[in-house]
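Researcher: Structure prediction, please.
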Amino acid sequence: MTNEEIKKMCISILRADTEENVIKILEDSGLWNNPKVWRCYGDNEMNYSTIGNQQSRADAALVEKVVNSVDAVLMNECWIHGMSPEDSSAPKNIHEAVASYFKGDGSKQESLGHIGNWSVKERTEVSRRITIASTGAKDNPCFTISDDGEGQTPSSMPITILSLDKKNKQRVGFVQGKYNMGGTGVLRFCGRRKLHFVLSRRNPNIKNDPADNTTTMWGFTVIRREDPMEGEKSSVYKYLAPIDADKRPLKGEILRFNAETMPIFPDGRNAYGRSSSWGTTIKLYEYEAMGFRTDMMRKGGLLSRFDILLPDIALPIRLHECRDYGGHAGSYETTSSGLNVRLKDDRKGNLEEGFPTTSPLVALGQRMTAKIYAFKKGKAETYRGSEGIIFTVNGQTQGHLTLTFFDRTVVGMNRLRDSILVIVDCSNISRRSCEDLFMNSRDRLTNCELRYAIEDELEDIVKNHQGLKDLRERRRREDVSSKLTDLKPLEEILKSILKSSPSLSSIFMTGTRLPDPFRTAEVVEIQEPFSGKPYPTYFKFQRLEYGRELERKAAINMRYRIKFETDVVNDYFDRLENKGHFNLSIISDAETKQVSTYSLNLQNGIATLSVKLPEDCVVGDKIKYEARAEDDTSVDAFVNLFIIEVGPAQEVSSGGGGRSGTPGKVSGNKREIPMGLAMPNINQIYENDWPKHSFDRYSALKVVQEEAIGNEGANTEGIGLYSFFVNMDNVYLNTEIKSSKEDPEILKARFMYGMVLFGMSLIKQHVDYGKENTTPDNEDPNIQNTNTSLQDTISKISVAVAPVILPMIKSLGALTTDQIAAGSHVGDNE
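Model: Predicted structure follows.
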């Protein structure tokens, strides 16, 4: 073929939006059915075992392509600034590179290297260098990812973009990805034949290998999956390489052509409306992803998935929706700058006051920071799917725990599960720890000791976060405040039901107390909202003068907590410039040793330190600690010394036992503390309130855990820490009311109390048997999770119980001994 014919074929394949059209173009050229012109991806006939073991989710796989584009743009800038990316004088990390090449001062990477500090105009301009355009069908769209990065020559593509085991970018410090590490994950999510198009041209301004005679040319290829032949064990991925294929069997060269520019970038809704003189374009045909079957900008679309998977992306990207969706002219394209930037821009209308907050944590000696977002009601779903806690490295999500983390009984934040997001920055953990914690595909966690240590710290942080506890109480009051006058009669009736049956009384009334959230101890008014200072003027033990040494006892089998007072802002330990550092050490005459596992919760002037005692300590030991808080502007660190005397082990209830403490007054800003009452909090929900509780006509019961239970520092009441919400407009209840001659109020009472007893029974079993919810970290947010929490289980099972509970109560109550003896059916004599 001539140069123009090859170029024309390339453009035709680029513009094709179905696999069928691509195959037709290649068949017409005599290439599709010629096995000699297809070369094994990575020159490895067994490449399926590697390619098939990448990301488990389509969105995570797509993100890897975007990460590679970001890297290519940064490397391009490094080259045109006169140095190799592998040079010792090149930037050492991503943010230094961004600050150096886009804002002109690498020494200010903490501010200039983070796009959240750029103007909207600056982000938009840079985003045009990395774009994603969606075309084709709404059900299975095509995605075209383009960048004006360094690009590759046709001769180098087999050892770069199309390789599997080359160490590309291995010695480049400022890139996020590595060639061959996850970049092939998209292949399994393309259409039936897994077609994937690649087009690239090297930037002519970069010094290239003089032996490469293709430096001025564009090169392109198509990747496909071939089914295993007879006698072969697996499929194989191959790419089109017809040049000199006869001379070099199965290792031909890819197609190439000369052209000054190619239309690789979108312009508005035209997916190929803007040309470039160099760069790389990758097109994925008929991409399979349930969550992408919508406008990219709408709720649940690609924009929100990119935000959560690249919460602190190094460079902004531009999304263009080119499919046939309605909307105004400005709704077809937007800039994605990551979740952190988006929430910073939209903070006022979406986040609760006082959030986000940050908590430094150390697990097995590895330092991390947890940033906690609390959303206003109904706002969180705009920004995330099923992710409750996400783990990031250099701004890219590596794995997550689902929302059911907040349902765990030891966490007790079920009421807020739809309003919390925690981002754990793992960028500073060691490379080995990173390898242990995350799969190579960078989309899920492993089951390792470090993971469990981190989860323990996160459970403690979330459970004891005062801001979350206050918000949980506020939400609880909003739910039931309008029903205060109804509580007493409901409680009295349920109490009589329980006491009327010895078996029910023994199950539910022994050793359990159920809190009334509105009978509270006397409190002092909360003072004005906390307003922190940029830098602390004090950081000391609560209610002690600075410099005083604190002594405390702690049970050998429990954490201990130390509270500090300070006047610094909540984000002191996680902001970009002059952020604070907290260090905890054990000091002795022999040595000073860093504490390997602890966390610090800073919220509105109170910093709560939570620490596990050393594993080798014994009862009677006195351990001296040094806590240091400082930042780069500090003349002297704030140093606080305290001694912990190790005491005997204390029993930790797993639920069902009595309260470990007596509620009462607290000094300072006193908060309302629930007092005990031996009845649950029952809430009747009618149709107009269904949306608040995610109810429909079939819903029957929702149970919300109000506090953490079952470990040290938590409430150990068990059943008593739950509120019950009963759907009094359930379709089966209303049907029974219409068809029965009985008093509707009696039927409603039977339904309500039957559901409450049913829920209490499930909770009691859960507490007695110590069943704890765990959720796979690799859950696909687009697929319903089958490993549900206790609360979800109760909701689902109650839907199945609702149709039979009233007929069962009526029929079994009418059953007589004569009917049993005669084997007759209930209701025959009616």
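Model: The longest helix spans residues 744-769.
Researcher: Thanks, that helps.
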